TrEMBL record:
<feature type="binding site">
    <location>
        <position position="79"/>
    </location>
    <ligand>
        <name>substrate</name>
    </ligand>
</feature>
<dbReference type="InterPro" id="IPR031322">
    <property type="entry name" value="Shikimate/glucono_kinase"/>
</dbReference>
<keyword id="KW-0963">Cytoplasm</keyword>
<keyword id="KW-0067">ATP-binding</keyword>
<feature type="binding site">
    <location>
        <position position="58"/>
    </location>
    <ligand>
        <name>substrate</name>
    </ligand>
</feature>
<feature type="binding site">
    <location>
        <position position="139"/>
    </location>
    <ligand>
        <name>substrate</name>
    </ligand>
</feature>
<feature type="binding site">
    <location>
        <position position="16"/>
    </location>
    <ligand>
        <name>Mg(2+)</name>
    </ligand>
</feature>
<dbReference type="InterPro" id="IPR027417">
    <property type="entry name" value="P-loop_NTPase"/>
</dbReference>
<keyword id="KW-0808">Transferase</keyword>
<dbReference type="GO" id="GO:0000287">
    <property type="term" value="F:magnesium ion binding"/>
</dbReference>
<keyword id="KW-0460">Magnesium</keyword>
<keyword id="KW-0479">Metal-binding</keyword>
<dbReference type="GO" id="GO:0009073">
    <property type="term" value="P:aromatic amino acid family biosynthetic process"/>
</dbReference>
<feature type="binding site">
    <location>
        <position position="32"/>
    </location>
    <ligand>
        <name>Mg(2+)</name>
    </ligand>
</feature>
<dbReference type="GO" id="GO:0009423">
    <property type="term" value="P:chorismate biosynthetic process"/>
</dbReference>
<keyword id="KW-0418">Kinase</keyword>
<dbReference type="GO" id="GO:0005829">
    <property type="term" value="C:cytosol"/>
</dbReference>
Length: 174
């Protein structure tokens, strides 16, 4: 398999952490849409949103998704990449899409421990607990629609990587 692997899911589900580890095992190149946007623009998510609003950020993010896609790549996306129907269609048609599913209480635990507020400014203005539940409720169907594989990602990163390898190459991972 050479097609790109796209990691999707909510903030803090482990797209960057697990995607990077998976790329190393597969010998694939790794890209992250949030990190690439930071590198090419020199601006954090919070700065882009302040200047251009969320719609400006979403437009830039969609452009980056297309730019970083390619063979033998693992691509960690931003948590809101699936809001665009064109992005969902692009990822599904170009590659293999993996949804890392994590319950709200575990997302909250991780995001409280590692807030990274410049890259994760508030989406709703609400308290983090309420925001996570609200955003998950709004996006769950979109993550499911985009995904070829849905993984329980509340386990350790190594366990999640192993589970992905089992889904992609059932014989090789056993
Ligand atoms: N399986 C895991 N178990 C425990 N902690 C994890 C796991 N995966 C990631 N983490 C931790 O949770 C935090 C968020 O992970 P990560 O940045 O990979 O999430 P993300 O899905 O890329 O989030 P974002 O959408 O904001 O980019 C990190 O500090 C990471 O160390
Ligand atoms: O869930 C979201 O909408 C976001 C998640 C992050 O990865 C960043 O892409 C940004 O903070 C928006
Ligand atoms: Mg990330």
């Amino acid at each position: 398999m050479t097609q790109p692997i796209f990691m999707v899911g909510a903030r803090g589900c482990g797209k960057t952490t697990v995607g990077q580890a998976l790329s190393q095992i597969l010998g694939y190149e790794f890209s992250d849409t949030d990190q690439t946007l930071l590198q090419v623009s020199g601006l954090s998510v919070a700065q882009i949103v302040e200047k251009e609003g969320w719609s400006g950020f979403r437009d830039r993010e969609s452009g980056i998704l297309q730019a970083v896609s390619g063979k033998n790549k693992v691509i960690a996306t931003g948590g809101g990449i699936v809001l665009s129907a064109a992005n969902r269609q692009f990822m599904r048609s170009q590659g293999c899409v993996i949804y890392l599913k994590v319950p709200a209480n575990e997302l909250l635990r991780r995001l409280k421990a590692f807030p990274e507020e410049h890259q994760r400014p508030s989406l709703t203005g609400r308290a983090m607990t309420d925001e996570i539940e609200q955003v998950l409720a709004q996006r769950e169907a979109l993550y499911q629609e985009a995904a070829h594989h849905v993984l329980d990602a509340s386990r350790t990163p190594d366990d999640v990587v192993f589970a992905i390898l089992q889904q992609l190459h059932p014989s090789a991972a056993s």
